[in-house]
Amino acid sequence: AQSVAQPEDQVNVAEGNPLTVKCTYSVSGNPYLFWYVQYPNRGLQFLLKYITGDNLVKGSYGFEAEFNKSQTSFHLKKPSALVSDSALYFCAVRDPGTASKLTFGTGTRLQVTL
Amino acid sequence: ETGVTQTPRHLVMGMTNKKSLKCEQHLGHNAMYWYKQSAKKPLELMFVYSLEERVENNSVPSRFSPECPNSSHLFLHLHTLQPEDSALYLCASSPGTSGRGETQYFGPGTRLLVL
User: Fold this and answer.
1) Substitution target from A6, A26, A44 for chain B, most B beta carbons within 10 A
2) B101 chain-A contacts, CB cut-off 8 A
3) Which of these, B32, B76, B78, lies nearest to B52 by C-alpha position?
4) Residue of A43, A99, A100 with shortest CB distance to B90
């Protein structure tokens, strides 16, 4: 069975500093990995995904994520955080063998302060 | 976010009421999904429809009844709900269900409170 772990309930960062939101996964084959962001009272917005190829994936709003197969991780990063990045971030994994099922983590709340 | 719309955005209902949630996607996708989001829990996949045919039903109680009349519309009919069913219900769509790494696009959700 596939699973996702987001070990931090909350990450606090000062504006202008780099941020990292951690995600590890478990699947039986090669994974498809996704990051979504959720702002208050909104649905999930797609940020980026890894399917194959370059391990560093660039997405929306200056976010990027690095796929590390040996560590089964897909951490979300941004070189310089903004207060407006404060939101709930979800990592998700899809096992290519499961046609429709995306498994989500519990989410990490990012708080960026001035 | 305007690609997937959901109505109503907020709903309060008693345990004996019957109500329906509506989802519409304007992306030309063939697959639609219902998820339940509860506080401090991972998103729970409830139902998956592909080309109007239900392809997945994740052991959801029968008090939740989905309907997909066409590939652009998805409903979730609710009856005799319990207070623990209070949650944010999210609709999503994707181009299909069997392609490589297809992205799911979400609506804004319906915040449901069952009294």
Assistant:
1) A44
2) 32, 49-51, 94
3) B32
4) A43
DSSP, collapsed to helix, strand or coil, labels residue A85 as helix
Per-window interface: B 33-52 vs A, CB < 8 A = 33, 40-43, 45, 48, 50
The two most distant CA atoms of chain B are separated, in Å, by: 43
- The answer, for B74 touching chain A at a CB cutoff of 8 Å, is no
Q: Count of CB atoms within 10 A of residue B114's CB? A: 19
Find, in chain B, the residue whose alpha carbon is nearest to that of A44: B106
DSSP B103: P
**What CA–CA distances, in Å, run from A100 to A52, B78, B95, B103?**
18, 24, 11, 10
- CB-CB neighbors (< 8 A) of B107 in chain A: 43
The answer for residues whose C-beta is within 8 angstroms of residue B112's C-beta and 6 or more apart is B11, B12, B13, B21, B78, B81, B85, B86, B87, B88, B89
- The predicted-structure confidence for A42-88, as pLDDT tens digits, reads as follows 889 999 999 988 999 999 999 999 999 999 999 999 999 999 999 99
Phi/psi of residue B33, each to 5°? -135, 150
- CA dihedral of B28, B75, B45, B15, whole degrees rounded to 10: 160
Instruction: For residue range B19-31, list pLDDT tens digits in order.
Output: 999 999 999 999 9
Rounded to an integer, what distance in angstroms lies between the CA atom of residue B33 and that of residue B111?
A: 16
